[in-house]
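2024-03-11 09:14:02 INFO worker-7 job=invfold-0412 stage=load source=structure_tokens
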């Protein structure tokens, strides 16, 4: 309430003063006989506009700045301030010479140079590789733990951003129950919004998947095996949720938990650590070596002539040469070679000789 009143008074006084000055300029230049009308009219109008609009303008501006800087480490912001200061100091040295130029260039060039060098200095020093205060400023990123709670450390090892695909997939709940996830699982608000949109879809399949995802999140939170946080942040300029996740992960130094192949590749190109649930599941499948015998049920034909296809209990596909005649039968097969593909592991085998 006090802040709102102060902002109204300051804004009204500022715009009233600006209106007074503008009215004086207008009357001195074009209409000296209407001094009272222009000066007092613009001063009163400016004061009234300031009293009404200042809280809304400042409120939106402050929320926008807070949202954009929420995930930026304090050390990087301090480095950016140092860069701006250095740029202004360099501009001041050049301005001593430029101010001697007669006319408007002597005033315009120093101002333009100051703005340019301040911007360049800030952008250069804002880079993560030039973070001067990273070792001295303890970083904490403020997240809401299920609506409010303690702060969590902003470090690469401790923060995992989860994607909508990994939530809907559901296997992340089983992984969290085992205790293998160490750190804090962060759910950005825009991911929750996308999941809610899927849960409200008119398509019954999408709606079921979205609701299952919400149940999975609640299950992870209730289990308590991994700390969960909801991050109130958005990247309105990003074109989609994947771009927002990549931008947030880069700002926070976090990893991304996903099952999305395209997001996996884009994040890796940007140097972000990706925890792919599909790759984890593939790495945990039993190791089969050439020459090992397996018990298998042939369920369908293969792509090549004479091949039969079956699947192990973990879903690994087994292609059996000359196995087409054993369709709908269980047989013993001998593994001959193993092929690792982007879709998973494929085992090639032949019917075992008794």
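2024-03-11 09:14:09 INFO worker-7 stage=emit residues=354
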């Amino acid at each position: 309430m006090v802040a709102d009143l102060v902002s109204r008074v300051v804004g009204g006084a500022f715009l009233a003063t600006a209106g007074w000055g503008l009215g004086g300029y207008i009357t001195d230049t074009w209409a000296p006989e209407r001094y009272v009308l222009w000066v007092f009219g613009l001063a009163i109008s400016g004061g009234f506009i300031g009293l009404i609009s200042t809280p809304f303008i400042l409120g939106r501006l402050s929320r926008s700045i807070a949202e954009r800087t929420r995930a930026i480490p304090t050390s990087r912001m301090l480095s950016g301030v140092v860069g701006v200061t250095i740029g202004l100091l360099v501009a001041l040295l050049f301005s001593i010479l430029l101010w001697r130029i007669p006319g408007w260039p002597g005033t315009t060039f120093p101002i333009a140079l100051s703005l340019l060098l301040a911007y360049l200095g800030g952008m250069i020093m804002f880079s993560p590789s030039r973070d001067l205060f990273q070792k001295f400023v303890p970083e904490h990123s403020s997240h809401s733990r299920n609506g409010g709670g303690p702060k969590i450390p902003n470090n690469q090892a401790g923060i995992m951003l989860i994607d909508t695909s990994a939530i809907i997939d559901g296997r992340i709940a089983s992984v969290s129950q085992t205790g293998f996830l160490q750190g804090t699982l962060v759910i950005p608000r825009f991911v929750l919004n996308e999941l809610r949109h899927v849960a409200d879809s008119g398509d019954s399949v999408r709606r079921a998947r979205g609701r299952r995802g919400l149940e999975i999140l609640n299950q992870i939170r209730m289990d308590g095996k991994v700390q969960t946080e909801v991050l109130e942040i958005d990247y309105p300029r990003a074109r989609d949720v994947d771009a927002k996740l990549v931008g947030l992960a880069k700002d926070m130094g976090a990893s991304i938990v996903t099952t999305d192949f395209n997001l996996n590749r884009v994040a890796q190109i940007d140097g972000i650590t990706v925890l792919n649930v599909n790759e984890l599941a593939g790495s945990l499948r039993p190791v089969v070596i050439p020459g090992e015998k397996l018990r298998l049920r042939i369920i369908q034909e293969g792509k090549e002539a004479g091949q039969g296809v079956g699947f192990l209990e973990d879903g690994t596909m087994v292609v059996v040469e000359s196995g087409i005649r054993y369709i709908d039968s269980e047989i013993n097969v001998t593994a001959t070679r193993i092929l690792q593909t982007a879709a998973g592991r494929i085992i090639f085998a032949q019917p075992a000789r008794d």
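2024-03-11 09:14:09 INFO worker-7 stage=report msg="Residues 74-138 form one domain."
2024-03-11 09:14:10 INFO worker-7 job finished
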